[in-house]
């Protein structure tokens, strides 16, 4: 590979990942909270998946969508764990070009799946409140399965071109990224060729997935609120809204970091390194840490299933 100062196109073999700029000497200590958060993510989401799998009473639309959400969050975490802990624990900050593209593809794919599942969950909550008597008849297992497949196919169709476009762009030697994992918005800054098609496609994906999904979630909650206001009793209104609290927390935990990071990457130049790292880690770790905790606390059926599982383990 040629010098980083070269202006000639080169074929990159590796990218350089970064931890927390200015705190390289403290990476071992910083790795402790990261390891703790990763442990919470795998334990929390793994527990959610386990209790939904083994408890037949949880084989209902709401919990099946929750299982999809937990699976997507585990996917995002699994994609980024090797490089994040590699940097903080072992000082390994290099990743091959192909591995970086692969990590970018899977991480963004699982993130897009999260967005699609959150939208499906908002529709689930609307149907449950608007027409509770036909809830199970409308959201049958085949329809839930088709929804999951549709989310995956949409994700693959949108994401497949991105690594292919990047793979064939010329680079001019600069290979240092801004995060401890590979993001498209970060990679697109490195080539010296025409990045316009890849940049336009990336922006289209952000708008078509995160933008449209978030807008439809807002519409769903507008319909939910209108339906709730039509319920005669205050107790009935509160009970209906209370079933949405966990999902609202999941939506906020997901969309606030992801939209903030995307906006900052595109419109804030130069972006302060510490802010960039903090936002990237919030985007990566906050939703999968928070969601299992919120659903375990706020959802009576999940809490009961977890307690029963713990009793069986102790027995």
From TrEMBL:
<dbReference type="InterPro" id="IPR050402">
    <property type="entry name" value="OR51/52/56-like"/>
</dbReference>
<keyword id="KW-0297">G-protein coupled receptor</keyword>
<keyword id="KW-0716">Sensory transduction</keyword>
<feature type="domain" description="G-protein coupled receptors family 1 profile">
    <location>
        <begin position="44"/>
        <end position="295"/>
    </location>
</feature>
<keyword id="KW-1133">Transmembrane helix</keyword>
<feature type="transmembrane region" description="Helical">
    <location>
        <begin position="35"/>
        <end position="53"/>
    </location>
</feature>
<dbReference type="InterPro" id="IPR000725">
    <property type="entry name" value="Olfact_rcpt"/>
</dbReference>
<dbReference type="InterPro" id="IPR000276">
    <property type="entry name" value="GPCR_Rhodpsn"/>
</dbReference>
<feature type="transmembrane region" description="Helical">
    <location>
        <begin position="274"/>
        <end position="294"/>
    </location>
</feature>
<dbReference type="InterPro" id="IPR017452">
    <property type="entry name" value="GPCR_Rhodpsn_7TM"/>
</dbReference>
<keyword id="KW-0812">Transmembrane</keyword>
<feature type="transmembrane region" description="Helical">
    <location>
        <begin position="65"/>
        <end position="92"/>
    </location>
</feature>
<keyword id="KW-0675">Receptor</keyword>
<comment type="similarity">
    <text>Belongs to the G-protein coupled receptor 1 family.</text>
</comment>
<feature type="transmembrane region" description="Helical">
    <location>
        <begin position="200"/>
        <end position="224"/>
    </location>
</feature>
<feature type="transmembrane region" description="Helical">
    <location>
        <begin position="245"/>
        <end position="268"/>
    </location>
</feature>
<dbReference type="Pfam" id="PF13853">
    <property type="entry name" value="7tm_4"/>
</dbReference>
<keyword id="KW-0807">Transducer</keyword>
<keyword id="KW-0552">Olfaction</keyword>
<keyword id="KW-1003">Cell membrane</keyword>
<protein>
    <recommendedName>
        <fullName>Olfactory receptor</fullName>
    </recommendedName>
</protein>
<keyword id="KW-0472">Membrane</keyword>
<dbReference type="GO" id="GO:0004930">
    <property type="term" value="F:G protein-coupled receptor activity"/>
</dbReference>
<feature type="transmembrane region" description="Helical">
    <location>
        <begin position="104"/>
        <end position="123"/>
    </location>
</feature>
<dbReference type="GO" id="GO:0071396">
    <property type="term" value="P:cellular response to lipid"/>
</dbReference>
<dbReference type="GO" id="GO:0004984">
    <property type="term" value="F:olfactory receptor activity"/>
</dbReference>
<dbReference type="GO" id="GO:0005886">
    <property type="term" value="C:plasma membrane"/>
</dbReference>
